[in-house]
TrEMBL record:
Keywords: Hydrolase, Signal. One of its GO terms (molecular function) is hydrolase activity. PROSITE patterns: IG_LIKE, NODB, PROKAR_LIPOPROTEIN. SUPFAM superfamilies: Glycoside hydrolase/deacetylase. Gene3D superfamilies: Glycoside hydrolase/deacetylase. Residues 77-341 form the NodB homology domain. Its EC number is 3.-.-.-. It is found in: Secreted. Residues 1-20 form the signal peptide. This is Polysaccharide deacetylase family protein.
Amino acid sequence: MMNKSLFLACALFTACATQAAVILQYHHVDTGTPRTTSVTPAEFRQQMQHLKDLGYQVVSLDTIIDGLVRNQPLADNAVAITFDDGFANVFTNARPILKEFNYPYTMFLGPALIDRREGPVLSWPQIQTMQQEGVIIANHSSYHHRLAVPNKGESKAQWRQRVKTDILLAQQQLEEKLGQKRKWLAYPYGDFSAELEALVSELGFIGIGQQSGAVGPGVSLTRIPRYPSSSQFAAMKHFVPKLKTLALPVTDYSGADPVSTTNPPVLTLSVDSSDFRTTSLNCFFDGKPLPLKWLDADTFRVQATAPLKLNHNRYNCTAPSRSKPGYFYWFSQPWVFVSDK
């Protein structure tokens, strides 16, 4: 689960550790869709204009993922734009804005949902038009079911077969319809588990989440973070600071399985703290600070004092960079709760 080679390749160079790209994540670009997953066209345009005005490099997601895979430093002002689910308003509302700015972007979609016309989704002709214009179309599983853990009454073997079939079916459909062969999977709902990460790696895929954070040394290739930029996060007061973040250089994810049988869950994480003071690292849930304990010079543990009750539960940990004033290291840990019975 850990991209060890990338971390080790950069471990001796602080300059490498302080280079990080940002991946933005959207669903709807519309005024009449659920606010929780939407950004208005005006908000979206404002965000895109800010990227241009501040001189950010809006790059293809290929550029960022290839850099991670090849252990190459990432441009610290690189930004990639992604959309999940394949909603038609991306074609009608976001696409003209992105063409105006000449920004590349990626769409993760579920082929079965497109075939069935489930919801206000794109048509295959629209998708083909976008691809011909240079848009990357990639795997969001075929049916957009939750993949992280077995369903009720489902054995581990049945879960594994279901998930494997879903991922590979979507890949086959995208290849047949579009010739798309990139083995990237954006997890439906952003949910994943250590066991799903292992399966994704076994299948040769890159795994992409919806938890916030920058992309750089120490980021696992089976849990690449993206910044959700809709809902309340569409506001510029939330959008702008995300662009000045760095990837917390994690050296061991073994205590960071998102699946927990206890609530509140425990996060144990080992990091390279050479570019931040351990006393300045803080973790939060729903904007409130969490008690944090350093177990040794490189490993900390954090646990909320009360059960988590949000629909999307995250611990967010941040620390200011010592060598890059104004930038913060950022790590987000998502949670998936299951019964231990």
